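Lab notebook: predicted structure, single chain.

Context: the supervisor wants predicted structures on file for every construct in the current expression panel, including those that have not yet been purified. This is the next one on the list. No modifications to the sequence; it matches the entry in the shared construct table.
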Amino acid sequence: MKRILHVVTNTAHYDDPSHPTGLWLSELTHAWDIFAAEGHAQHLASPQGGRAPLEPRALRWPLLDASARAWRDDPARMALLEETAAPDRIDPADYDAIYFTGGHGVMWDFPDSAGLQRITREIWERGGIVGAVCHGYCGLLNTRLSDGRLLVAGRRVTGFSWREEILAGVAKAMPFEAEAEMARRGALYRKALLPFVPHVVADGRLVTGQNPASAKATARHIARLLRE
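Prediction complete. Output recorded below exactly as produced.
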């Protein structure tokens, strides 16, 4: 049995308070189901601890699939999203992998969380796996290793593309262009030829998925690495 730390957002809205956002639920549940089938222990953390709000768009058909619906309809699992751990309650030595989920909320609270950066750095430097899906890769933008190098510099990554932001109709509301910021940090950003299709990029122990449709494939790749 391995131990996996899922990271979710605390941000409930865009800069405009009337524009709600939060965790894209299926990006958590698809991975959770795959890791649970492998018998792994799983826990939830967030930048501030406490409640993780849900992205309303992800709770509508056809985006609310059976996996996400089962979680939403289970009071015990929903309670987990009310009681996520703050970074200062997490000992990175307890975990074999960290998995950053998405939803637009993460763009506001993942990039500059020193606590999440500490956890990620220590898991990575102990030989653990660092994973992210969709906007979750914003949590890797500013993580530096003990020698001062950025974790993503010179490494292949993917995540929600700017083209996908435009097609989703929310590009103008974004606080920054995540794809471009990754490139500025020296990451070797890659994306699928078509938007919104599953796409996973693995660079050793760094495993990233481009969009919500990539969550299952991302988790399966992490699960294979954990078996090895």
